[in-house]
Design brief:
This protein is of the alpha+beta class. Strands 1, 2, 3, 4, 8 and 10 form a 6-stranded antiparallel beta sheet that branches. The structure holds fe (ii) ion.
């Protein structure tokens, strides 16, 4: 499998040029939809074991709400145990195809600089707005990773305007780290007027978005009551001169994300 993949052009010249220009690279059908759906199913099955324990027999959506409302600590623990070591989550985050793709966009020695994250966002499953909705921010500010470092965002459900697909501010990665103010746990950046035009891609399960850690983005509003399941991985470049010269900083702090 490795050899075949290595010869393949995973990112075309056109996509690469667009990525350099906008800071965003959308790769359709990157993973098999079944494999990505399985990550969500594995995460759901963690909760399902607790639903069984409490005798919940309704739909997943209703059961998880009951767990959140009635047994909040167990709800939080399910979230934690998924983050700590959901096998499928860790496996896909180091997939060889991701490594080759990172190589093809100029990250010659990728290093995962934060733990893989699996989010399940819904305003009725959060105690404060900031836990399901983020203001415009640059991930780089909390990471100080290489200047070519990227985030890979993998939706585990089809996403669109209605269920809050990520909103991007194309080109903002070229501005470098922006001024910001702290709101909750987030550094909300000030965006120059000429960069306020946004895009909010519609994505299917299997599609991935790679974007610069310096690109300004925010989560979209979730208008319906669905759960927006997604994975977020971050990769820095050990060969980046800028990162080496700054002494490989790694200031990222893990904060509770469920309360
Ligand atoms: Fe972010």
């Amino acid at each position: 499998m490795g050899m075949d993949l290595e010869k393949r052009e995973l990112v075309t010249q056109f996509q690469y040029d667009q990525f350099k220009d906008t800071g965003i690279l959308i790769l359709k059908d990157f993973f098999q939809a079944e494999r990505v759906a399985k990550i969500r199913e594995s995460a759901e099955s963690v909760f399902a074991r607790q639903f069984n324990r409490f005798g919940y027999k309704d739909s997943f959506r209703k059961n998880i709400q009951d767990l959140f409302d009635n047994n909040f600590d167990d709800f939080v623990n399910c979230g934690k145990i998924i983050q700590q070591g959901l096998w499928d989550l860790y496996e896909i985050s180091t997939d060889y195809k991701i490594k080759l793709t990172l190589n093809q966009i100029g990250i010659s020695s990728p290093n995962m600089c934060t733990r893989p994250v699996l989010f399940f966002n819904n305003k009725n499953l959060a105690k404060e707005d900031v836990y399901y909705k983020t203001p415009p921010h640059q991930d780089w500010i909390s990471m100080k990773s290489s200047d070519n470092s990227v985030v890979i965002w993998i939706p585990l459900v089809d996403v669109n305007k209605k269920n809050g697909s990520v909103i991007f501010y194309p080109g903002t990665h070229k501005l470098g780290p922006l001024n910001y103010e702290r709101i909750g746990g987030f550094a909300k950046v000030n965006i120059p007027d000429e960069y306020k035009k946004t895009i909010q891609p519609e994505l299917k399960v299997g599609d991935v978005v790679i974007f610069s850690t310096l690109l300004v983005h925010e989560s979209g509003d979730i208008e319906d009551d669905s759960i927006r399941w997604s994975c977020h991985f971050r990769y820095t470049d050990l060969d980046s001169k800028d990162f080496i010269d700054r002494g490989f900083p790694n200031p990222y702090e893990y904060k509770p994300i469920y309360r």
